[in-house]
Design goal:
Blueprint lengths: L2 E5 L8 H8 L5 E4 L14 H7 L4 E5 H6 L11 E4 L1 H10 L2 E5 L1
Parallel strand pairs: 1-2, 1-5, 2-3, 3-4
Length: 102
């Protein structure tokens, strides 16, 4: 059984993303939304940790949220995939449960 984890807090303001990634099981997915998208920045203190976790997890960002924050795709980790609202719905349907990390 897989879980879709959503994280909406900046990893530079809280430890939410770190906690989420440490609790995920192989095959789970993480979707960074709202200010959580800052966790996908390639040149940040979180980059190596997120990159390492991407070996066993699928990691996504909400593309409309990255655009709203002025984050260009070339500034994001290559291991992270962007999804739109329809993609968010697809992820919810694909996984057995959804866990929000608020």
């Amino acid at each position: 059984m897989s879980t879709l984890h959503t994280v909406n807090k900046s990893p530079f303001a809280t430890q939410t993303l770190m906690s989420c990634l440490n609790h995920c099981k192989d095959g789970d997915a993480v979707l960074m939304i709202e200010d959580g998208v800052y966790g996908a920045l390639a040149n940040s203190g979180m980059a190596d940790f997120v990159r390492a976790k991407s070996a066993s997890l699928a990691i996504y960002v909400m593309s409309p949220d990255t655009a709203a924050r002025g984050l260009a795709e070339d500034k994001l980790l290559g291991e992270v995939s962007g999804v739109d609202y329809a993609g968010f719905v697809d992820l919810v349907a694909k996984h057995d449960r959804t866990q929000s990390w608020l």
